[in-house]
Design brief:
Layout (H helix, E strand, L loop, with lengths): L3 H11 L43 H13 L3 E10 L2 E11 L4 E7 L2 E8 L2 E6 L1 H7 L9 E5 L8 H8 L15 E7 L5 E10 L2 E10 L6 E10 L2 E10 L15 E3 H8 L20
Parallel strand pairs: 6-12
Antiparallel strand pairs: 1-2, 1-11, 2-3, 3-4, 4-5, 5-6, 7-8, 8-9, 9-10, 10-11
């Protein structure tokens, strides 16, 4: 399994809040920060900065939120995708800057989860996902283990999600083709919402992000809505549990098998396929 197979399921994580959620590609690309502007190289917001609720420049507000996110040690992200109100994808991911993380992804009846801590990575698939991919269903509930730093392992794509803080920190980038950007402070002054329109591959959508205005400047919610031939696609993501410890419990040893011992039997690992992004989203027959 190449990282490309994970892109459909995970693009909304690395590009949440934009229509790049339907993108593909070979390997996971950083869409939030250029290589020279990763969070670790950013400095905190200057002391005495203008209160966020008083700003009117949406891009300046988002830049403030990104600087604040870069200072976080950990966070939890929850995301759901719906088509005409019916869920087709959900994900929960919590992680820290030291590489510990855990995630659960569900697409209709299929699900998978993974955990990473220190030098270890564990991945588990449910029976429906194994059946759909032609894998051995008797492995449902079994944890596949591999070293987290084994770049040659087919499980390495999962480790990438833990190693890059952009996967779980509340960061966002507005694409160059964004239009009609607006800034709306809440009535109680507790947060600011920034909205903009964007078109990609013939699909037009509206993106709205919510940032705290209590001095923390943190992105806590994003929503992307797009009208497509099959209905209305909506992605909603939220962030919480900032700077809280990410306690990863290794699976029970009795439920763990070494991935290398089963590699030939497994063949291609199961992955979330075309159903993650509804065909209507890409204007293909459903």
């Amino acid at each position: 399994m190449s990282p490309r197979h994970l892109t459909a399921a995970m693009a909304v994580v690395v590009a949440v809040g934009t229509l790049t959620a339907c993108g593909g590609g070979h390997g996971r690309q950083s869409v939030l920060f250029p290589a020279s502007e990763r969070p670790e190289s950013r400095s905190p917001a200057p002391t005495g900065a203008v209160p966020l609720a008083e700003l009117t420049d949406g891009e300046e507000i988002l830049a403030r939120a990104n600087r604040a996110a870069a200072q976080l040690a950990s966070a939890r992200m929850e995301m759901e995708g719906t088509l005409d109100g019916e869920p087709f994808l959900s994900m929960g991911l919590r992680g820290d800057q030291d590489g510990s993380c855990a995630a659960l992804m569900t697409a209709e009846t299929q699900s998978m989860q993974f955990r990473q801590h220190a030098e270890d990575l564990w991945v588990q698939f449910n029976a429906e996902m194994l059946s759909e991919s032609g894998g051995p269903e008797e492995l449902a509930g079994t944890w596949l283990h591999a070293p987290a730093d084994d770049a040659g392992s087919e499980l390495a794509a999962f480790a990438e999600l833990c190693d890059d803080p952009e996967g779980f920190l509340p960061v966002i980038e507005v694409p160059g083709n964004a239009t009609a950007m607006t800034v709306t402070p809440s009535d109680d002054g507790g947060h600011v919402e920034v909205s903009w329109n964007q078109a990609q591959d013939g699909v037009e959508g509206t993106n709205t992000v919510r940032i705290t205005a209590d001095g923390t400047d943190l992105l806590v919610r994003t929503e992307t809505i797009a009208e497509v031939p099959g209905g209305t696609v909506r992605y909603l993501a939220s962030w919480s549990e900032f700077d809280e410890p990410v306690g990863i419990t290794p699976p029970d040893p009795g439920s763990v098998v070494e991935f290398d011992d089963l590699a030939e039997e497994l063949g291609d690992l199961p992955y979330f396929g075309e159903g993650i992004i509804p065909a209507a989203y890409t204007d293909e027959p459903g």
